[in-house]
Amino acid sequence: MILLSNIVSKKVLNLFSGKIEGTIKSLCFNELCSNVASLKMFSEDDDEFLIDSKKVYSIGESAIVIKNASAMISTINQCNPNENSPINLEVYSMTGDYLGQVCDAELSNNLKLNFLITKTHRIRQDQIVNVGGNIIVNTEDKKIRISDFKPHIKISPNIPEEKVYILAPKIEKEKSGETETQTIVGGSQSKFKLNTLPCPQRIMGNSNFLLGRKMFKTVYGQNNEIIIKKEFLINENTINCAKQHGKLMELTMYSRKKA
Predict the structure, then answer these.
(1) Residue 158 falls within a domain, yes or no?
(2) Which domain holds residue 113?
(3) Quick one: 232 and 186 in the same domain?
(4) Domain with 138 in it: what CATH number?
(5) Cα–Cα dist 200/164, whole Å
(6) What's the rounded Cα separation, in Å, for the pair 37 and 33?
(7) How many folded domains does the chain comprise?
(8) Does residue 171 carry a pLDDT above 60?
(9) Are 209 and 234 in contact (CB under 8 A)?
(10) Largest CA distance in the chain
(11) Are the C-beta atoms of 24 and 7 separated by less than 8 Å?
(12) Which region among 51-65, 115-129, 185-199, 230-244 has the lowest average model confidence (pLDDT)?
C-alpha cells in the first residue's frame, strides 16, 4: 500500500534514458476519486507534464519509474485537467455528521484509491457518494447512488395547438366588358368564409375612424397612466397606446366627432 503523501515530491526516473525527468507535484483523480488518472510533473526547467497512471512502470521508495519519455505529455497549449484531489476537502456523512478533513489517502500499487484518511476516520472508496466542494460518504449498509437524488423535472402535458380564424366578408366579382367591379355582400344576409392563413391571435378592427374625434372623458391605462385627456383629439399614437392597454372600446365610448 502507498500513501499519497509519499508519492508527491518523488523523482520521475526514465528507464530508457536513465535520466531523472522531474518531480511529482500532485495527483489528478477521476470523478469519484476511485483511482489516480494522471500524475502532474514539473521538470527542472519548470515545464509541466502529465503522466498517465497506466504508463507508470513501478513505484519505488525514491522514484516513480516510467519506461521512456513517451509517457510524458506536455500541458503546453492544452487544458490542464481538474485535479479533483480529495486532500483538504471536508468529509460529511449523508446524515450530516462531520467526519473531518482529508489529510492523506491510501492507494494500491496500481494507484487505485483504497481509503481516504482524516484525523479520526478511514473512509473506504466504495463509501464515497459524491465529490464536489466537499466529500459526501455513505456510512450505512444500504447502497446509495447520487443519481437517486437527482431532481425530477415535470413535463407539461401536450396542449393541442389552438387554431384562430378570422371572419372575412365574401367578395363577389362581376366583369362587365373590360372593367371589373367588386361587391361586398352585406346586410342581414351577409355571407362569410373562414380564412385559415396565419393571423394574429385576436381580431382587430379598423380603428382609423377614431382619428380626429374629441374626448369628453379622460381614459386611463392598466397602471392608471393617462392614455388621453378629456377635450383632446385622438391621433395615431393615442390609438396605438389604447391597443396596448386594451382600451379601444373606451376611446369609442367616450369620444365624439369634432364639431
Answers:
(1) no
(2) 90-144
(3) no
(4) 2.30.30.240
(5) 8
(6) 9
(7) 4
(8) no
(9) no
(10) 111
(11) yes
(12) 185-199
